[in-house]
Amino acid sequence: MTAWAPGALSPRPGAAPFSRMLASQTRAELTLLLRNGEQILLTLVIPLGLLLVLSKASFVTVPTGHDRVGFFVPGVMALAVMSTAFTGQAIGVGFERQYGVLKRLGATPLPRSVLLGAKTLAVLAVEVLQLSLIAVVGRLLGWHPHGSVVAVLLLVALGTAAFSGLGLLLGGTLRGLTTLAAANLLWFLLLVLGGVLFPLSHFGGTEPVVRLLPTAALADGLRAVLQHGRGLPLRDVLALGAWSVAALAAAGRFFRWE
Amino acid sequence: MAAPALQGPALEVAGLVKRYAGRPVVDGLSLTLRPGTVLALLGPNGAGKTTTVEICEGFRRPDAGTVRVLGLAPTDRTLRPRVGVMPQAGGAYPGLRAEEMLRLVASYAAAPLDVAALLDRLALTDVRRTSYRRLSGGQQQRLSLAMAIVGRPELVFLDEPTAGLDPQARHATWELVEALRSDGVSVVLTTHLLDEAERLADDVVVIDHGRVVAAGSVAELTRSQGELRFRATPGLDLTGLDGSREEKPGHYVVAGRVDPQLLADVTAWCARQGVMAEGLRSRSLEDVFLELTGREART
Asked: How far apart are CA B292 and CA A84, in angstroms?
């Protein structure tokens, strides 16, 4: 180490262009998501493992007239979106708050809109990876998808908005460890009540209510398009839209940066 | 792009009040940071240093008083590239490596410092590929300091920058603060280390219970209520040495304006009496600090 050259530290303040901040922040968020072993377990290993088991295990019944893979692929896709946008984001944000990262980033030129934009882009990138892998594994298991790609993308986008809002609401208000516990518990509950493991018809009279939960709405909507080749399922779109508006509004209202 | 020339103080705080649950933690505090100088906020634990700094950084809102940072309100977004912040702890992604974290913060700036050179200067090159969570406390501190200055700010807030550092790292930090100052960066640092304030600060503001109990240059603070201290054999007859007393056996204090004349008077008196005075010195900042804030330990 040598002495500091005169002028080496003279002030030259200025913010980088938004595009550069967005690119580097997105890269950092994505690095963090893909480097975290528990995140990979949650977002990739469990959904793909479930898809393999459910497609092959004869003890799980599917509605008559449904092919097994065709039933389970859309549900597992919904689970994957929930895992990344809701559980992963909630836990990530909860600990970032606890470690003072978000507070400190607030003292840098990085605008909060760019930070949230980067988080969203990182989530979408992971979802592309997840849905591609699920589709490939599904094809290997004999999956024949139907329907419109645009409808699928719209459902995934709405589901991502709803789950991100819920994740930011949870991670933005609770402590890190509390968030971890709550996000995992909700992940499990929404998985069971989501029409992922078994059809919602198992819930009998409560089915119309359960169907409005975000995971169930996304799974049901994806199934309507991908399995039955229907157009945009209006009830599921409305349910996810309502969750998106409510959760994002609540997150915007109650989110605390530290 | 050169920084716009600053008119007036880099930081001006007047009558600042902050209460938590009705209890004032900052209680009518005022201070001024001259551009291009280092101001040390000195005080025992719980004196209100961090709260004051966090209000200046825009993290907390004051209950009363005014704060102007580079002439602007502390929450003004246009201040963000111009002000560097090093919090007392934390503030990095635990899963990112040291170099990744610093490059990320550098990417927010239009003309950042060279990341590799900065890592080298702060002795972080060997751990640049180590994740933040695996860095030692001292390495985390130095990375945090690097994050505060990498964007080439005009003003930096350093909250206890050398807490927990070993002597080498402390000196590296001090050299960095001195380099910032000589390059025209204004610095506010909080510390409870008196030698740190004595070495680095142009001005010292001693705060206790949220109030300023003394302010001025180190020289002003140590000379204002001047006294010289020396050690000699106990029980000397002090007749003829004005303002002198034996504080405890063998420890003598001579009150008076500390200047070369007083020094000459004391040594001349010692020579006449055949007294060998040892450790002759004026008050240190530590003497002043302990007189102002008391000697009982704080939690």
From this structure: 56
